[in-house]
UniProtKB/TrEMBL annotation:
Organism: Skermania pinensis
Record's signal peptide: 1-22
Domain Low molecular weight antigen MTB12-like C-terminal per the UniProt entry, residue ranges: 45-150
InterPro entries with a match to the protein in the record: Mtb12-like_C (IPR058644)
One protein family per Pfam: Mtb12_C
Protein name: Low molecular weight antigen MTB12-like C-terminal domain-containing protein
Family as reported in the entry's similarity comment: Belongs to the MTB12 family.
PROSITE patterns recorded: PROKAR_LIPOPROTEIN
Entry keyword set: Signal
Record flagged with keyword Signal: yes
Membrane-spanning ranges: none
Length: 169
């Protein structure tokens, strides 16, 4: 009897781990010749891994009101509840994510994240972009989750066409 539910539960947890890290490796590398620098507004200082981890944890903390998270993710003003939806998914499966390293890549940051789910540890990358004078989670990271989970969000216009439209679809 125990084996009957364990196998589907294990498969479900493995799938959720894949969903939670889906798209994490999709960082954009930007390099500049030694004599060139990025143009445009000055970039904010590169944060430490612990500083970026604190922002990431706040973004995925369901106790923090959505209105206080708008500056934490690129484009979140279009759907302030998006991070709360993702936080609920992380919480429902008992996932824990910790940013352990930060690498500047031009006008972006690549944050190495360690995800623990059911005692299994995997790593991935969460991209951050400079916006409004601070580092924000790139909308591409959240949109990869939206697409994989088949939910929709105005932050991710392509997700509207991918989301089911009716009871069977």
């Amino acid at each position: 009897m125990c084996v009957r539910w364990f196998r589907p539960a294990a498969v479900t947890m493995a799938c959720l781990a894949t969903v939670l890290l889906a798209g994490c490796g999709n960082t954009v590398e930007v390099s500049y010749p030694d004599s060139a620098t990025p143009t445009g507004p000055a970039l904010p200082p590169v944060p430490t891994a612990s500083e970026l981890d604190a922002r990431f944890r706040t973004a995925l903390d369901p106790a923090v009101p959505a209105t206080q998270k708008v500056g934490l993710m690129q484009g979140l003003a279009a759907d302030p509840s998006l991070l709360d939806q993702l936080a609920q998914i992380y919480r429902s499966v008992g996932a824990q994510a910790v940013i352990t390293d930060v690498t500047p890549t031009g006008d972006r940051l690549a944050a190495t994240v360690r995800l623990t789910l059911n005692g299994q540890v995997t790593t991935g990358t969460v991209p951050f972009v400079a916006a409004d004078g601070q580092w924000q989670i790139a909308s591409s990271w959240a949109c990869a989750k939206v697409e994989t989970l088949q939910i929709s969000s105005p932050v991710c216009p392509a997700s509207a066409s991918a989301a089911p439209t009716g009871p069977g679809g």
